[in-house]
Design goal:
nucleus, mRNA splicing, mainly alpha, 27 helices, elongated, spliceosome, Serine Threonine Protein Phosphatase 5, Tetratricopeptide repeat, about 0% strand, 3 domains
């Protein structure tokens, strides 16, 4: 056979009777491991070798006969073994480390397609590497602008399985870029509200890392750990007693490095301690003062302590507790972990490495439920057993359901109740705006929010700036809210006569706040027509209070400059009319603003009446001289009466407004 001819059998050695052959060592197999030292065989004596080898020389190998030749199968096996002896062992790519040789993407995709069993170690290792890469990438690209988008993507990964990877990655990123510590702390605060075991593990690892850095006199490690813990105290992820213990340890036996680390901690967490735990803050600053005067420290360290006292004197204006753009967690949602510096803490380093999970699918399903609860996702049905007829029936039912309308306005009432309770339960205007923005407003009902803000403000006994700040913040958040509040101004001015006097005053003060803060544009005055026919006593009182509040908040000079703005003149033709056909409207407006103390705004109308207004026709001359005295007397009486008519309306306005305000006070009492 061809195979037999390809195999070369060992030939017998020549017979040597007189020559003594020196025993040689056995060739080392390429599959044997490295030897740890001299073996027992090298220490055997010659007699033992002789006994094993059958004497000094080797016995000659007998010549092979036809019966001794291997058959076809054995020859083929011998050939394969001889061929594979010079070939490398096959390598399982799925078991190689992630940092090994480069695997082309096409080959990697083929490997992933070939592995479909989720219980196999190969599949779980690939999923582990993908999880580690995803978490590391999301943390590395986090910044202030995109943190709100990164966190949902982070929750889409299995943070329960990869909590060790998350903690290691975020600690490494924070140590490499200390200015990003507030951003990483805000991310941990969000994750901690939903998965507190992740926040707890991070706190434990940071404490242990600080211990190691402190024992080894590693200043950089101690500084990064304490800075991260300080910001976690600010976000209430860890209790402030931990940072107090760290400060006590650092200042017990002060050195230049320990004082520098303590100063860095107080800059970050000092505002929080002054507000929440002033006793701890006072004790720390007393100790700092003693160190400054008594301890033998370097000049540089003394300057650092003096700078810290200056920072405290300025109320930590450059080191707030939480920056406004990173305040993303409600205080009642936060979970605070209580750990001490000397406690027995386990860092669970085993979570950083891959381990085969026999219940992999069950654990993935559990996290899928947690993720759906966190992200608000709804699990869709994957059943494919529905027929076309059933799907058509469902579509018909959906169409019918869409056609049903609630005529009782129950949804509208519930929406208004929700807005009202949200406003009343808020402690500050920023918290209120944040909660109101989270309300799911149906499309087309956005104006209900602005209406409820004005209504809630008018229900108070006196005007509260709290509501004005809410309206101002909404106007500056989005142009849509500005347009809605401008529409609300027009609506309330047209219906102001329906409100009681106290509510009228509060509504005027509310819109004066929006105008003074540039929340809404001053072109809203185009709805005001200051004429006798177009105004009522309620609308005139509304305008009077509005202008008084603008004067109080901005000052007369700014108000006059605003109304003289050329861009606004087209919108002010109603409130400051200059109608050539009916000059009585101009005189009415002049008298009104003069009566309320805003006569300076009427200078333009007065100039128009004096110079540009068409003059009345002259009176006809008398027919005879005998009637001169009578005409003169009649002309003088006409002039005096016209003069009295031109001056009397301001007095009339004052009397009317005073009487109306008297009714206001009477109704309130």
């Amino acid at each position: 056979m061809e195979v037999a001819s390809a195999v070369r059998l060992p030939s017998p050695e020549p017979e040597l009777d007189d020559v003594k052959e020196v025993p040689r060592k056995r060739d080392r197999s390429p599959y044997d491991g490295p030897s740890a030292g001299p073996s027992k065989r090298s220490r055997r004596d010659d007699d033992e070798d002789d006994r094993r080898n059958g004497g000094i020389g080797r016995r000659p190998a007998p010549k092979p006969t036809a019966d001794d030749l291997p058959d076809d199968d054995s020859r083929l096996k011998l050939f394969q073994n001889a061929f594979s002896a010079n070939r490398k062992l096959p390598v399982d790519d799925s078991k190689t480390r992630a940092g090994g040789a480069y695997i082309p993407p096409a080959r990697l995709r083929e490997m992933q397609k070939s592995i479909t069993d989720k219980k196999s170690p190969e599949f779980q290792r690939m999923a582990w590497e993908a999880l580690k890469k995803s978490i590391q990438g999301l943390i590395n690209k986090t910044n202030t602008a995109n943190i709100k988008m990164i966190v949902p993507e982070l929750f889409s990964e299995n943070l329960v399985r990869g909590r060790g990877l998350f903690c290691r990655a975020i600690m490494k990123a924070q140590a490499a870029s200390l200015p990003f510590t507030p951003i990483y702390a805000a991310m941990v605060a969000i994750v901690n509200t939903k998965l507190p075991q992740v926040g707890d593990l991070l706190v434990r690892r940071l404490i242990v890392q600080f211990r190691k850095g402190f024992r080894r006199n590693d200043k950089n490690v101690a500084l990064s750990s304490t800075m991260f813990l300080s910001h976690l105290v600010n976000t209430q992820v860890v209790h402030e007693i931990l940072i107090a213990e760290i400060l006590l340890l650092l200042l017990n036996k002060p050195s230049d490095d320990s004082v520098e680390i303590a100063v860095g901690i107080m800059k970050e967490v000092g505002a929080f301690l002054d507000e929440m735990k002033p006793a701890i803050a006072n004790a720390i600053f007393d100790q700092m003062r003693n160190i400054l005067h008594e301890a033998d420290i370097d000049k540089r360290t003394q300057y650092m302590i003096e700078v810290l006292f200056e920072v405290r004197r300025t109320k930590y204006k450059d080191n707030p507790v939480i920056r406004e753009d990173l305040d993303l967690v409600e205080e009642e949602d936060q979970i605070t972990h209580n750990h001490t510096l000397e406690g027995d803490l386990k860092v669970e380093d085993g979570l950083n490495i891959f381990k085969v999970d026999p219940d992999y699918e069950a654990h993935e399903e559990e996290y899928a439920k947690i993720k759906a609860e966190i992200l608000g996702e709804e699990e869709g049905s994957d059943d494919d057993g529905y027929t076309d007829a059933s799907s058509e029936d469902e579509e018909d039912e959906e169409v019918k359901a869409m056609d049903v309308k609630d005529q009782t306005n129950a949804d509208l009432v519930n929406l208004r109740r929700t807005i009202y309770l949200t406003i009343k339960s808020s402690g500050g205007f920023e918290e209120c705006v944040h909660k109101l923005m989270r309300i799911n407003l149906p499309h087309g009902l956005e104006n209900e929010l602005t209406t409820m803000i004005v209504e809630c403000a008018s229900q108070e006994r006196t005007y509260e700036k709290f509501y004005g700040m809410i309206g101002e913040r909404f106007c500056k958040l989005n142009r849509m809210w500005t347009d809605l509040f401008e529409e609300a101004f027009a609506h309330y001015y047209e219906t102001i006569h329906r409100f009681e006097t106290n509510r009228l005053r509060i509504i005027a003060q509310f819109f004066a706040h929006l105008l003074g803060s540039d929340g809404i544009g001053w072109h809203v005055f185009q709805v005001v027509k200051m004429t006798e026919e177009d105004t009522t006593s309620s609308s005139r009182i509304f305008v009077k209070i509005l202008f008084e509040e603008l004067l109080a908040s901005l000052g007369q000079k700014v108000v006059v400059e605003r109304f003289k703005d050329p861009m606004l003149q087209d919108s002010l033709t109603g409130i400051f009319p200059t109608d050539a056909d009916d000059q009585s409207k101009t005189r009415f407006s002049i008298n009104f603003f003069t009566a309320i103390g805003m006569g300076v705004l009427t200078e333009g109308m007065r100039d128009w009446l004096k110079n540009s207004a068409p003059k009345p026709k002259p009176l006809p001359e008398p027919e005879s001289d005998s009637d001169d005295d009578r005409s003169v007397s009649s002309r003088s009486s006409y002039t005096s009466s016209s003069y009295s008519r031109s001056r009397s309306p301001s007095l009339i306005f004052k009397i009317q407004i005073s009487a109306a305000e008297g009714q206001i006070n009477t109704s309130r009492t």
